[in-house]
Amino acid sequence: MTRAPTPPSSARSSPSSITDVDCWNGDVWDCIVVGAGPAGAMAARQAAIRGLRTLLVERKVFPREKVCGACLNQRALTTLAEAGLGSLVADCGGVPLNRFQLRCLRGGGDAVRELSLQLPGGAAVSRAALDESLVRAAEAAGVQFLSGTSVKVLPREPRQVGSDTDPRELELSTCDVSREPHRRTIRSRVIIAADGLGHPSLKRLTEFPERVSASSRIGVGGVVSHEGDLPAGVIGMAVANWGYAGLVRIEDGRLNVAACLDEEVVRHAEHPGAPLIQLLEQSGFGTIRADLGAWTGTPKLTRVTETLASDGVFVVGDAAGYVEPFTGEGIASALVGGLAVADCAARAVRGSRQAAEQRWRQQWEQLVWRRQQWCRRLAWMLRRPRAIGAAVRVAAAFPALARPIVLHLNSPRRQRGRVSIAADDFA
Ligand SMILES: Cc1cc2nc3c(=O)[nH]c(=O)nc-3n(C[C@H](O)[C@H](O)[C@H](O)COP(=O)(O)OP(=O)(O)OC[C@H]3O[C@@H](n4cnc5c(N)ncnc54)[C@H](O)[C@@H]3O)c2cc1C
Predict the structure, then answer these.
(1) Which of 16, 72, 267, 417 has the fewest CB within 10 Å, making it most exposed?
(2) Per-residue pLDDT tens over the stretch 90-135
(3) Residue 322: which CATH number?
(4) Which ligand 1 atom is the nearest neighbour of the CA of 246?
(5) CA gap 144, 32 in Å, rounded
C-alpha cells in the first residue's frame, strides 16, 4: 500500500513568525497548546472542534524528524479513525506492518536468539510526515499554528494566585534563526503543555515537579538510507543487555532507526549512533552508514510528572510521563491523551476549572497510566538478559503464548472512561 508521501509543506502557507499570528491585540486565547507532536496537534484540533479559540505553538520549524520508532500500533490507528482522521496515515504513505522480528544478543555479543511474531496491524510512517499532517488537520479545524517559537509559561503574580478564572500568561520567543528575534507575552484561559519529555515550557513553575528514574535509558535515532534486506512491513528489533534498537522502512523506503540505550554506553561511544549501528550489525540487520549529523538523542526517558493539572495548566503526552518505548505505545497514548485533555480544557473554559482538572487526573490514570504498567514490566525484563532470553526461547517454541501479549499491547479497547469526541455537551 505504499503511496507517494505527502510533499513537505514548507511551501504551504502557515504562520511561522510571532508577528504573523493575529494574537497581539490583547485578546485572551481560550486555549494555547504548547508543542505540536501527536498529543499537542490532536489536543489543539479537538479544542477547536469544541469551539475554543486555539493557538498551537511549536519551537521547531516543521516538518521535522524526531527520535521515535515511527510505528503506530492498532490503538493509535483506531484513535485516529475515531477522531475522523482514519485516512491520515495512508495519505502520508504509511507502510502497513505485519511482522515483528526480534533478535537478542547473548552474553558476549555475537550469538543471537531469534523470534518472529505476526502483528495484528499497525503502520510505519516518519514523524516528519505524521506530525505535519496532524498539524494540517488541526489547522483545518480552525487552529492557528505558530512554529519556530518557544514557549515558557509564566508563574502567577502573587496577587493573582487563587483565582479560578484569571487567564495565564505565556512568554513566546522566536527560535527560528531565519527570522527576526522576537519576544512577546500573551494570555490564555487554558494552557495544554504537550511539549514532550521534561515539559520544558513549565520549568519556571514550581507546581509541576518531575521524578526521573536514575537508571533510565536515553533515546538515540535517525532516518537513514540502508541497502540491507529488511522488507517493508517488518519491524526489526535487536536487544542486548545495554539497550535495544528498532528499525523499520518508512514511506519513502528509507529506514527509521531508534534505540533506547544505557547512558554510559552512549557517553563512551565515538558518536551517539555508534552503539546502535554496532548492535544492529551484530544482530544481523546489516550495516548502516550515516553522517554523524543523522543522529539525535533524548534526555532520560523514564519519568513521571507529579502534577497533571493545576491552575489552568494541563499536562499531556510524554510531558506527563513516559516509560521506555519497547512496546511502541507512546504515539497511541499521546493521541488518546490529546483527545481527552481537550474535552477537559473545554470544561475548564466553560465551567469549573477545578472540576475539569480533577477529571483530567482521572482520565489520564485510566487511559494512559494503567497501560504504561505493561511497558514498565517489559522495561524491567529487558534489563535482565536471562529473563528475556528465556522468554524468547519459550515464545519461539510456543508462539501462541506470545500472541495475547501482542494483541493486548495493540488493543484499541480503552479501560473505562471512554473519550467522547463530538462537541455535544457544550452545544
Ligand atoms: C527511541 C524511541 C522510540 C520510540 N518508538 C516509538 C514507536 O515506535 N511508536 C510509538 O508509538 N512511540 C514511540 N516512541 C514514543 C513517542 O516518540 C512519544 O511517546 C511521542 O512522540 C509523544 O508525543 P508527544 O506529542 O507527547 O511529544 P513529542 O512528540 O515529543 O512532541 C513535543 C513537541 O513539543 C515541542 N516543544 C518542546 N518544548 C517546547 C517549547 N518550550 N515551546 C514550544 N514547543 C516545544 C517539541 O519540539 C516537539 O515537537 C519512541 C520514543 C523513543 C525515545
Answers:
(1) 267
(2) 999 999 999 999 898 876 556 678 888 889 899 999 999 999 999 9
(3) 3.50.50.60
(4) 3
(5) 10
